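re: that chain from earlier
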Amino acid sequence: MSSTKPINVFYCCSDSDKDEKLRNELEKHLTILQWEGIITSWHPGMIGAGNEWESETYTQLMTADIILPLISSDFIASDNHWNVLAKLAMERHNARQACVIPIRLRPVDNNWKLAFPNVKALPSDERAVTDWKPYDRAFKSIAEDIRKVIEKRTGSRFPIQHSLQDIGAGVIPVASAFWKLTSASINIVATTFLSSAGRLRYRKRSRAKLTAITKTIITVGIASAFIPQLSNLLGISSSESNPTLNSTQQIIPIGWIQIGLVNKTSNGLIFGDPLLKTSDPQIIDSLLVPAPRTVVTIKHMVNLRKKKSPSSPLGDELQPGEKLKILEVDHLGEGSSNSPYMQVWAQVGKCNQICDK
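^ sequence. v structure.
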């Protein structure tokens, strides 16, 4: 059983009975990862009676570490799955808040890949699951690749002995080969040196000591060449080794902008809710309420506000094309208490070299 926090896996699957049966089979193949405490999984079928479907789905999607869109004609035909959930998943993927791995369930036109640019889909041989016979072969391949993704993504949180074994696998063969090439020369040098010193009766013992010391020096020297690779073997990048580099605290807030409207509900603001179309131009390149740490691009010129209020003093102008990081998201009621809408405001900071998109 793993002592680390499990990875949250979100199955983004259509309501089709065909897709649900295939999702269930995939989940069975990933069960061993759950038994090992490596992952937990969630899909909409787990929503309890009385819970709001939309709210629970968005909450789970926004907290998932790995999102598995299960691609099929039914998935693409679903407006909610294709135009809302898939786009929100890719926003989180691009912001490095989650990892999106599309799963080819059933054959469809390859244009679906346009919604998931630069993302590797599974199975890795470009065939859909239903093109395999039997399906278990496809699910086995998918499960193996997902395990590799998890181990690569969280290598620093898995037992370090895996990395030490990798280092040893590189150091020991090189040291052994080098030792075989030089051991004969060392014996000759040791014998000559000790004989010239007149210590013949201690020759064997001293030569053994000198040999052991030399061998240790060679091994340590070769091992030191591998030390700079330790961070790579552990799956730690240079930015990850300094966790404050990518934190939102390193980006200075420059003000607030109103990014759109959402329907007023008793649940308040939910990340991933669609931003409603209004007469005003679209301010950011997202059609959904962004989560904190999301990187967005300004679509139209907008003035910053010092506070999240239309009456707050104006700040600098933001120009189209500027990239910003969302630091905080909040809502305000529309001017009229009878309005069915809420204003969505975002506190932002400029990216410069710090944004991790």
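The chain has three domains: 7-157, 161-233, 248-350.
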